Amino acid sequence: MPRTSNTDKIQRLKELIARLKDGQEVALRDFTIATNLQQRKAFKAMWQEQMEIRRQLKNKPKAITDYEKKLKKALLANGRYEAFVGPKSTSVQRKKLGEMGVKAEGLFEEAIECLSDLLAEDGNYRQWFDRDIVFGTHGNIDTNPEQMPRVITSKSFDNLSKDGARNNFGLKTKAELKIEILEQALAELTTEMASDAEKEEIKRKEQHQSIKLKEMLKDLKARK
Question: Distance between CA atoms of 174 and 44, rounded to whole angstroms?
C-alpha cells in the first residue's frame, strides 16, 4: 500500500472536519485512520468526561428537583386559573376565580421562597438556572410563568437558555469532540510540515555553503 504524504493527510483532515461541521457523520474507521494513538486516547478521555456531565445533568441535586416540583404545581394551578378567566355571571363563579388566582400566586410565592433558600444554601446552584436571578423590588423574579426561572434542562418554551447545559456545564456532542481532536491533529501535522520545510531550507543552505567553500578552495589552489 503506498504511503500517504503529509499533504494528503492534511487534505483528508480538512475534509473530515468540514463534514462534521456540516452535520454529517464521520465513521470510526475514518477517524481512527486520521488520528494517532495519543489523540484517540485524548478523545476517549474527553468523551468519558462528557458522560459524567450527562450523568450529573440527569441526576440533579434534590434542592433543584424540589424547586421544579413546586414550580410545576404553581404552573398547573395558574393554568387552571387562566382557563377559567372570563366574564362570570354569578358571584359564586367570581369568587371561585378570585380564589384560584390567589392559590396560583401563593404557590408561585412558595416556589420563589424555595428558590431563595436553595441559592442561600449554595450559590453554585445558580448554574442550574436559565437566567441571572435577582430578588427584590428591582429583581427579575415575579409570580407569573414568564418570570419564574427554569432549570436549564427544562423543555419549557419559557426556558431562556436552551444552551444552558453547554454554557454552564461544558456539555458537548461526540461530533464536537471529534472536531477538536481532528483540528489538533491538523495543527500538529501542519507544524511538523513547517518544521520539515525549515530543515530542508537549512540543509539547502548548508549544501550551498559547502559548494561555495569547495569552489573557493579550488580557486586558491589554481592561483598557487
Answer: 10
Residue 23 is which amino acid? G
167 Cβ contact partners less than 8 Å away, ≥ 6 residues apart: 161
Query: How much is the average pLDDT of 131-141?
Result: 91
* Claim: this prediction has a pTM higher than 0.85: no
What are residue 151's DSSP bridge partners? 129
Question: Would you say the C-alpha torsion 173, 178, 181, 186 has a positive or negative sign?
Answer: negative
CA distance 161 to 168: 10
Strand segments (E) across the chain: none
Residue 220 has pLDDT above 70, yes or no: no
Comparing 34-43, 85-94, 106-115, which segment has the lowest mean pLDDT? 85-94
Give the largest CA-CA distance in the chain: 130
